[in-house]
Design brief:
Elements (H helix, E strand, L loop, with lengths): L1 H27 L8 E10 L3 E10 L1 H21 L5 H15 E3 H35 L1
Parallel strand pairs: 1-3
Antiparallel strand pairs: 1-2
Helix pairs in contact: 1-2, 2-3, 3-4
Length: about 140
Amino acid sequence: MKRIKGLSGAVGCVMIVAGLAGLYFFVYLGHKPPILQWPVPTLYSQYIETKLFTIIRNNQGDELSVLVYTLGWSLLMYSRMGGFFTPASIGILIFLIGYFLLHGTAVLGFMVIYLMLSPLILLYTQTYKINNSTINNIKS
């Protein structure tokens, strides 16, 4: 089991670097390969016009890069924490769902709100966890 955790940490680090390279290539340099133009569902898309609950054609290069990057962090957390269902990994899952279902300027707003609320939610979950363990220790 220890070997799997070590391997997942190494694979996670490689995925993080690959995701960052993809973000540099697709977002910073602006490359949009035609092979990645896919029809995708969206809850809210705001480019030139606003669309709700529809299918749009969008280049998925940056989405795939973010997916590889966040999966890399998830594997790294698994190798360190020993489980996938931690508050941080659930936060990553919520981020991915929002990132994949919102497009255009809507995803930028989502990311700003997510970055502002994430520390508060993680602080609350850690405080609640500490309070529950303290209460359980007092009862025994």
